[in-house]
User: What shape does this take?
Amino acid sequence: MRKNTFGAMALAVSLILAFTWSCGGNGKAPLLDKETIKSWLSDREVMILDVRASKDWQVSDKKIKGAVRQDPDEVKTWAATLPKDKKIVLY
Assistant: This one.
């Protein structure tokens, strides 16, 4: 289980970096603390994407209300559809 969690976290960080780079960023995605994320939950300018592996997402009892679930294996399909006028948080 611990190995799966580490793998999911590594994948999430990789996706964040890849997404930032593909959008013309400086390649350094900021790490956000729990309090910051909580304060953004009601912000309409923030979109939260849950990009955990399918099996990790299915067995988890921890999900952020309002987060949009995206398959990390299909990032090339959905990344281009994300709004450019919002802050996007991947977890």
Notes: The mean pLDDT is 79. The CA atoms of residues 5 and 56 lie 8 Å apart. DSSP finds four helices and three strands in the chain. Residues 2-22 form the longest helix (21 residues).
